[in-house]
């Protein structure tokens, strides 16, 4: 490849040169809860709470670059778009599959590079992207959606994400008209309101001389019940159901004090409190800054409270605390990270500044914390296996044929 040639981006793999080029999709990562995706175009801007970012400033930068804003108020990371990130930033046209179900389903369907697979409906294309990456580079995904606008939007995204060579998207009602694919695929995934109506056609679509896997995704147990009946009816075996939940834990580093250190720290605070200069906090204005008084004369106002001028321990210790939070989250998280003060942090007490102070450094420990909100919606996952013995007539057809045969053999000979 020549130096000036643009390397086409694909969500199914990484770019060799790892460089942002015009037309690339880039995930703008401010924090875990604040990400979006842009398509880089000279002359356009990305705007966020930290200010404006020129697209043209990103061209030529490496993926993973930390980019400060023009206002100097914050920064973000420029990330390569993977199927996992796409699931978090995509425009929602429907409910979507999240990573817990995606990874579980792909594992149980035993998906591998080179396989062929059917998915329906395409919906917002969340699962389609992960499937495409797993089957790449030589496998193929046939995805079916009956809603024309969703088809158009997904088609555009597959093209812009470098996946159109390995994804065939068709607009059709698979429950009414079937897949029109025979002896073709290794796996099938159905995220439909009535998956049982597509089971007969699914059976024909499997490679008939191989073992294949089917999975259906349904929020209600009634749907599961009807699907199990249809799968049994059509000779699928090994029918199992799961529900998959994921709980994300945030990892942080916080200082951990021993009892001795904590006692020593408390003694030092008491000592400092005793020798600190009083400061004025206006009674009617708890938010007033240090040094501000409601009296203009400089005297202590009678309505004001007098408090010893100890440092704001929580704030100073938090600022001194390392934590694992990335990106602009730093801004929001520092005040909640630690509740213990660091002795010897900056104070306004002039007496305290006169002598050198002893600094007690705690050990840092790694802790985990559950975020307030966990994203993901759950459904029942129904798995079944197609074997070469599955092919042929359904149970009802077999019974009807047997009944017809019995009836004809018991009929009196003419
Ligand atoms: C929940 S969404 C699928 C979401 C998708 N799994 C994702 O991760 O983005 C279900 C989709 O199935 C489509 N659908 C429903 N019945 C259908 C049918 N009989 N044939 C084709 N598509 C159908 C709906 O239009 C909808 O877009």
From TrEMBL:
<dbReference type="InterPro" id="IPR014816">
    <property type="entry name" value="tRNA_MeTrfase_Gcd14"/>
</dbReference>
<dbReference type="InterPro" id="IPR049470">
    <property type="entry name" value="TRM61_C"/>
</dbReference>
<dbReference type="GO" id="GO:0160107">
    <property type="term" value="F:tRNA (adenine(58)-N1)-methyltransferase activity"/>
</dbReference>
<protein>
    <recommendedName>
        <fullName>tRNA (adenine(58)-N(1))-methyltransferase catalytic subunit TRM61</fullName>
        <ecNumber>2.1.1.220</ecNumber>
    </recommendedName>
</protein>
<keyword id="KW-0489">Methyltransferase</keyword>
<keyword id="KW-0949">S-adenosyl-L-methionine</keyword>
<feature type="region of interest" description="Disordered">
    <location>
        <begin position="270"/>
        <end position="362"/>
    </location>
</feature>
<feature type="domain" description="tRNA (adenine(58)-N(1))-methyltransferase catalytic subunit TRM61 C-terminal">
    <location>
        <begin position="74"/>
        <end position="385"/>
    </location>
</feature>
<dbReference type="Pfam" id="PF08704">
    <property type="entry name" value="GCD14"/>
</dbReference>
<feature type="binding site">
    <location>
        <position position="191"/>
    </location>
    <ligand>
        <name>S-adenosyl-L-methionine</name>
    </ligand>
</feature>
<dbReference type="InterPro" id="IPR029063">
    <property type="entry name" value="SAM-dependent_MTases_sf"/>
</dbReference>
<comment type="function">
    <text>Catalytic subunit of tRNA (adenine-N(1)-)-methyltransferase, which catalyzes the formation of N(1)-methyladenine at position 58 (m1A58) in initiator methionyl-tRNA.</text>
</comment>
<dbReference type="GO" id="GO:0030488">
    <property type="term" value="P:tRNA methylation"/>
</dbReference>
<keyword id="KW-0539">Nucleus</keyword>
<keyword id="KW-0819">tRNA processing</keyword>
<feature type="compositionally biased region" description="Polar residues">
    <location>
        <begin position="284"/>
        <end position="300"/>
    </location>
</feature>
<dbReference type="GO" id="GO:0031515">
    <property type="term" value="C:tRNA (m1A) methyltransferase complex"/>
</dbReference>
<feature type="binding site">
    <location>
        <position position="145"/>
    </location>
    <ligand>
        <name>S-adenosyl-L-methionine</name>
    </ligand>
</feature>
<feature type="compositionally biased region" description="Polar residues">
    <location>
        <begin position="311"/>
        <end position="342"/>
    </location>
</feature>
<comment type="similarity">
    <text>Belongs to the class I-like SAM-binding methyltransferase superfamily. TRM61 family.</text>
</comment>
<dbReference type="GO" id="GO:0005634">
    <property type="term" value="C:nucleus"/>
</dbReference>
<keyword id="KW-0808">Transferase</keyword>
